[in-house]
C-alpha cells in the first residue's frame, strides 16, 4: 500500500488525467527523438561514406592525368630522334605534338642540366632543373615519379613534374611539367554540397592544386595537424577542435605519392530544422494533451460533483431525480441512485408502518397475555398448575408470532397456520383430517385462530378424541352464502369422534372454553356453537370471510 501511495498519491482527477496525458505524450516524444537521433546517425554515416567516395573519385581523375603524362613520357622516350641524339628534331616534334596542350617536356643529363625545354626555343641557353631533389629521387628509384609542387625557374609559376629516368646518354631523364593552375582545372567541387573545397596534396604536404571556399594557393602547406592522421589509403577525418562542424575525406592516389582531399561543413540545416520542428511539435503536443485532459477532467469533475450531490441529498432522506451528464456510465449511476432513493423512501415508509404495527400488536399481545393470565389465575388451584397453564398458552401464542414474523407480518396461509399449531401434538397428527380451500389469513386472524386451534387440540389431547389411539378429529372449513347477506361467510368445524364417551357437559367454563367460544366469536365478529355430544365435541365457528382473509 505504501508503494501504491508513493506512485499514486491523493490528488484530483484533473491531476491524474493531466499526468496520464503527459505520460502518454512524453514516451511518444522520446521515441520520435530516438528515431531522429538514429536518422541523424545514419545521415552522418552516409555523409562520411559519400565524402570518402568523392575523395576517391577525385583521386582517380588526378591519377588518370598523371598516368596520361607517364604514357606520354614513355612514348617520347622511344622516339627515333631521341635515340639518334637529334635533340633539335626531337624538340620540334615534341613541341608540335604538345602545342594544343598545357604540358611541356624537358630533357636533362645526369647532372640536372637542361638539354632542351619546349617552353623555350631550341638552342636557348638553359640552366639546371629547379627541382634537383625530385630528379635525384627518380634516378635512385629507377621508376616514374611525380614531384612536389615548386616554383619553376623558366616559367616563374608553381609547377609539378612527372619524371621518367633513362639509362641512355646524353639524355638521362625526360621530364614532363605542367603549371599547377592548369592541373587545378581538373580539381572541381561539382557535385559537392555548397561550402565544400577540394585539393591535391603532394608528398611533402603542400597543395598542388585546390578549389572551393578554402581558396588555397599552390605551394601552401596543408594543415599539419591533419596530415598525420591521413595514414590509410582512404577514409574520413573529423575533429571538432581542428575542423569544427566539418568533415574531411581523403584518398591516396594509387601508385603515386599524392593525396586528394575534400572537406566542408556538415549539412545540419535539415537536421536542425527537424529537431526544431520536433521540439516545437512535441511541446505543442504535450500542451494539447494537457489542455484536452484538463477539459475532460473538468467535465468528469462536474459529473462526479453532481453525482456526489445526489448522494448527499439521498443521505438526507430526499427522493432525488437523476441528473443528465455527458458520461453514459455516470447517467447509469445517477439513475441507480435515483431508484435507490425511491426504494429507500418506500423502505422507510414500510419500516414506519411495521414499527407502528409492531407497537399496536405488542400492545394487543400484552393485553391478551394479561387477560389470559388473569383468567388462568382464577381457575388455577396452585402455582404449578398456573405456571403450566400459562406456559402452554404462551407456547401456542409464540407459534403464531413466529409464523407471522417469518412472513414479516404480512399474513399467512390458513393451511400453514393449522399445520404449525398441530405440530405441537405430533403423536396425534395422523388422527386429524383437514380439508378446505386454502387462503391467506390476516395477521390478527393468524393469532386468534391459532389460539383457538391450540385450545381445541389441547382439550382433545387431554379429554377428547386425541386422548385415545382410535379417536378421530375432522377439521374443515367451507364457504357459506346466506340469503340477504352480500358478504361471504366461512364456517369452521372441529368434530371429534371415537374418544371417551362424554357423559355430561362441563359444569364450569374455563379459560379454554372462553377462548374457543367468547374470544373466537368476538375476534371474528361471528358465532360459535359448541355441542358436547356423547361421541365427541363439536365446535362450529361461523364468521365473515372479510374478517379473516387478507386482501
UniProtKB/TrEMBL annotation:
Pfam families assigned: HWE_HK
Tell me its EC number(s), please: 2.7.13.3
> Enzyme group, top EC level?
transferase
- Does the record's keyword annotation contain Phosphoprotein? yes
Could you tell me what reaction this enzyme catalyses? Answer: ATP + protein L-histidine = ADP + protein N-phospho-L-histidine
Concerning InterPro entries, the annotation shows: HATPase_C_sf (IPR036890), Sig_transdc_His_kinase_HWE (IPR011102)
- What are the transmembrane regions? 16-39, 277-297
Q: Per UniProt, which keywords does this protein have?
A: ATP-binding, Kinase, Membrane, Nucleotide-binding, Phosphoprotein, Transferase, Transmembrane, Transmembrane helix
Molecular-function GO terms, alphabetical: ATP binding; protein histidine kinase activity
Residue span, Signal transduction histidine kinase HWE region domain: 357-438
Top-rank taxon of the source lineage equals Bacteria
| Keyword ATP-binding annotated | yes
This chain's protein is named: histidine kinase
* Native organism: Rhizobium leguminosarum
Amino acid at each position: 500500500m505504501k508503494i501504491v501511495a508513493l506512485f499514486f498519491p491523493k490528488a484530483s482527477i484533473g491531476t491524474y488525467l493531466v499526468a496520464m496525458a503527459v505520460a502518454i505524450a512524453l514516451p511518444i516524444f522520446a521515441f520520435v527523438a530516438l528515431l531522429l537521433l538514429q536518422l541523424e546517425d545514419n545521415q552522418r554515416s552516409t555523409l562520411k561514406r559519400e565524402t570518402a567516395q568523392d575523395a576517391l573519385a577525385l583521386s582517380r581523375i588526378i591519377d588518370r592525368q598523371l598516368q596520361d603524362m607517364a604514357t606520354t613520357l614513355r612514348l617520347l622516350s622511344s622516339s627515333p630522334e631521341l635515340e639518334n641524339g637529334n635533340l633539335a628534331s626531337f624538340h620540334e616534334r615534341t613541341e608540335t605534338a604538345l602545342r594544343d596542350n598545357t604540358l611541356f617536356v624537358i630533357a636533362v643529363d645526369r647532372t640536372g642540366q637542361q638539354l632542351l625545354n619546349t617552353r623555350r626555343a631550341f638552342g636557348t641557353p638553359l640552366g639546371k632543373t629547379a627541382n634537383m631533389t625530385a630528379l635525384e629521387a627518380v634516378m635512385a628509384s629507377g621508376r616514374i615519379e611525380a614531384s612536389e609542387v615548386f616554383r619553376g625557374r623558366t616559367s616563374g609559376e608553381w609547377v609539378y613534374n612527372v619524371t621518367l629516368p633513362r639509362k641512355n646518354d646524353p639524355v638521362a631523364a625526360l621530364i614532363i611539367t605542367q603549371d599547377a593552375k592548369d592541373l587545378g582545372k581538373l580539381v572541381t567541387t561539382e557535385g559537392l554540397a555548397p561550402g565544400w573545397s577540394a585539393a591535391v596534396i603532394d608528398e611533402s604536404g603542400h597543395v598542388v592544386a585546390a578549389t572551393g571556399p578554402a581558396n588555397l594557393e599552390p605551394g601552401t602547406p596543408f594543415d599539419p595537424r591533419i596530415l598525420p592522421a591521413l595514414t590509410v589509403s582512404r577514409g574520413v577525418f573529423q575533429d571538432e577542435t581542428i575542423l569544427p562542424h566539418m568533415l574531411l575525406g581523403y584518398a591516396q592516389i594509387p601508385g603515386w605519392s599524392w593525396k586528394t582531399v575534400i572537406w566542408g561543413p556538415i549539412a545540419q540545416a535539415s537536421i536542425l530544422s527537424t529537431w526544431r520542428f520536433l521540439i516545437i511539435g512535441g511541446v505543442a503536443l504535450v500542451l494539447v494533451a494537457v489542455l484536452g485532459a484538463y477539459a475532460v477532467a473538468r467535465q468528469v469533475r462536474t459529473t462526479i460533483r453532481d453525482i456526489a450531490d445526489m448522494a448527499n441529498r439521498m443521505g438526507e432522506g430526499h427522493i432525488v431525480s437523476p441528473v443528465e451528464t455527458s458520461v453514459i456510465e455516470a447517467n447509469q449511476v445517477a439513475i441507480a441512485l435515483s431508484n435507490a432513493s425511491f426504494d429507500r423512501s418506500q423502505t422507510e415508509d414500510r419500516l414506519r408502518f411495521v414499527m407502528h404495527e409492531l407497537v399496536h400488536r405488542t400492545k394487543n399481545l400484552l393485553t391478551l397475555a394479561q387477560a389470559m393470565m388473569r383468567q388462568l389465575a382464577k381457575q388455577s388451584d396452585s402455582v404449578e398448575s398456573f405456571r403450566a397453564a400459562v406456559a402452554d398458552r404462551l407456547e401456542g401464542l409464540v407459534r403464531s408470532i413466529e409464523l407471522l414474523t417469518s412472513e414479516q407480518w404480512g399474513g399467512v396461509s390458513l393451511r400453514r397456520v393449522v399445520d404449525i399449531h398441530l405440530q405441537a401434538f405430533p403423536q396425534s397428527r395422523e388422527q386429524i383430517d383437514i380439508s378446505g380451500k386454502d387462503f391467506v389469513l390476516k395477521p390478527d386472524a393468524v393469532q386468534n385462530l391459532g389460539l383457538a386451534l391450540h385450545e381445541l387440540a389441547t382439550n382433545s389431547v387431554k379429554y377428547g378424541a386425541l386422548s385415545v389411539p382410535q379417536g378421530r378429529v375432522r377439521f374443515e372449513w367451507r364457504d357459506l352464502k346466506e340469503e340477504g347477506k352480500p358478504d361471504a361467510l366461512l364456517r369452521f368445524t372441529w368434530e371429534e369422534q371415537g374418544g371417551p364417551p362424554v357423559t355430561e357437559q362441563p359444569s364450569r367454563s374455563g379459560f379454554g372454553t372462553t377462548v374457543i367460544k367468547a374470544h373466537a366469536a368476538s375476534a371474528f365478529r361471528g358465532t360459535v356453537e359448541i355441542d358436547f355430544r356423547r361421541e365427541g365435541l363439536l365446535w362450529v365457528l361461523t364468521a365473515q370471510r372479510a374478517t379473516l382473509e387478507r386482501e
